[in-house]
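Backbones bend. We report:
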Amino acid sequence: MGRKKLNEKDFYLTLWKYFTIHGSQRIKLLNFYIVLECFFINAFFTLTQKTDEHLAYKAAICVFMIFFSLIFRVLDLRTNSIIKIVEKSIRKIEKKNMKKLNSNFMIFSIEKEITDNLRKKSTLYHLLSYSKTFIFIYLFFPILGIIFLYCTLVYK
């Protein structure tokens, strides 16, 4: 028995599945990260209501907030790079088939063109991307952790 020869459609479907898996994973990672950081914030404020004897625990929570922000940011960078590679590959397939099929179905190519045009028109659109929004989120919590740590150590 011979092996089935892969065609372009099989390759496209594999890329699409890979894209959906990693796109979904990226959002799930972000959701888990936000829940984890909110847990740390809640724990910090719970300990703040107690006496000063929990200084080491409060400091540890702040360090964990910063540490996990770095870990999740690295995971996000990796997932984002995988998604970008897949998007680029899908756009190549779409470009190759543009004449055969209706170009309105080339969603990755259309989205990139629209986004590029919007970014040429306004600086605001440079900020409107998942990656940039995620960067703000991954910066917010460690900065909050640093502020909490500072307050914990200075205002014992």
